[in-house]
Amino acid sequence: MAKFNFLFCSVLFHILLSPVLTQSAPESALVTQIPGFNGTIPSKHYAGYVTVDESHGKNLYYYFVVSENKPSEDPVVLWLNGGPGCSSFDGFVYEHGPFNFEAAKTKGSLPTLQLNPYSWSKVSNVLYLDSPAGVGFSYSKNESDYRTGDKKTASDTHTFLLKWFELFPEFLSNPFFVSGESYAGIYVPTLASEIVKGIEAGVKPNLNFKGYMVGNGVTDEVFDGNALVPFAHGMGLISDDLYEEVTAQCHGNFYKPLGQDCAEKLAKVDEDVSGLNIYDILEPCYHGMDTEKDLASKIRLPSSFLQLGTTERPLPVRKRMFGRAWPLRAPVKEGIVPTWPQLSNSNSVPCTDDEVATVWLNDKTVRKALHTADESVVSRWDLCTDNIIYSHDAGSMINYHKNLTSKGYRALIYSGDHDMCVPYTGSEAWTRSLGYKIINEWRPWTSNNQVAGYTQGYEKNLTFLTIKGAGHTVPEYKPRESLDFYKRFLNGLPF
């Protein structure tokens, strides 16, 4: 009888509690329709703003995709794109969001959306955030907030998370991870450090923080700056002779030439690789806005070349146009960091075709459905903005990683091994420089019964992993493999 009463009370408790849990999320933030998508949304989506500074009217925009698996148990993962100044809708539209986007067939029409079988929401709750203020749909009523840097961005994002979990308390007990790519190699560890300091200080609500992931991430001036030359040599992009000459003349210091002879050899390296697609050396460069058909009519390309860099994604990876994006061998240094549009003196991201996302996110019906600010407040969505003045003021990330991993937080440092923007050689070198004991020696890891890359596991829950044939934005190039390593990392499984 006692057992029956216990079971009955337990069931009754859950019945009574369930409506509270399911209604905790703000219903006003619920996204009820996705323009361009005609099917049934496989899980709940929420979108809106969190005010991180009342006095300034500083508001950060989020888009939250509830897990399609077990929302109450699956991890909550914050996703941050880099730049600095790039919207995390880049990840949502082009990488691991719940939909694949197909360009509109006619001008003025919306892109067509289909379900993405490799969405990260298959196994987790994913929180996409536009950060800092001035990026994407995030904004401030005080324009002084558009001058910011690493430390302020980390502090504001931590404030956002504390307030966001107050709005969505049913997810507070879920394991929480922070992830991102490119310049988010700075955002992620600085934010993780703020989160840990908050936990140790007893800040409420108490976040169930477990670890973080960084993909092709900016990390350290020396390691990032020295990454290109060994990458170019290992990939067969420069000759043995040039590699030996530049190594001898520069004494292993490739990011800051100390003499004329070194500078001349480095210029030759730059010349040899300048015609390649910086984001993925396997992909063709599209000069200007030429289409594949136009290009093929001018140059006879073998079919094997046209297949380079192909993926399982049902829709093609964005065209990457010819042109220098981040300057080669130019690591992020202390001080003002130019945004991507500033590098190209335009309002677009150099070398990138972002038309699908731009058309979709600037459509009035889409903006209304996604609960964005009025056009009088945020006039336009851009993939990357030049509205902010951003300073790198946190220094090298190596000590951040060392402090976080020494406290037991899990870290996955992953790299698309054909990215020339932030080459894997730099990430491999700095993870090794931490001096941790190797637990699992360099070995292949598999996905779909194929070698998908290589991995090395260190003590302190640190893992370095490459994704074979992937470029700068790994899930865009290798969606199936990305979902595989993502799922294993979140579940603490071996690679």
From TrEMBL:
Residues annotated as signal peptide: 1-22
Listed PROSITE patterns: CARBOXYPEPT_SER_HIS (PS00560), CARBOXYPEPT_SER_SER (PS00131)
Record InterPro entries: AB_hydrolase_fold, Peptidase_S10, Ser_caboxypep_his_AS, Ser_caboxypep_ser_AS
Tree of life domain: Eukaryota
A single GO molecular function term of this UniProt record: serine-type carboxypeptidase activity
One cellular component (GO) term of this entry: extracellular region
Subcellular location: Secreted
Keyword Transmembrane helix listed: no
Documented EC number(s): 3.4.16.-
GO BP terms, alphabetized: proteolysis; secondary metabolic process
Assigned keywords, A-Z: Carboxypeptidase, Disulfide bond, Glycoprotein, Hydrolase, Protease, Secreted, Signal
Biological function: Probable carboxypeptidase.
Stated family: Belongs to the peptidase S10 family.
Protein name: Carboxypeptidase
Organism: Acacia crassicarpa
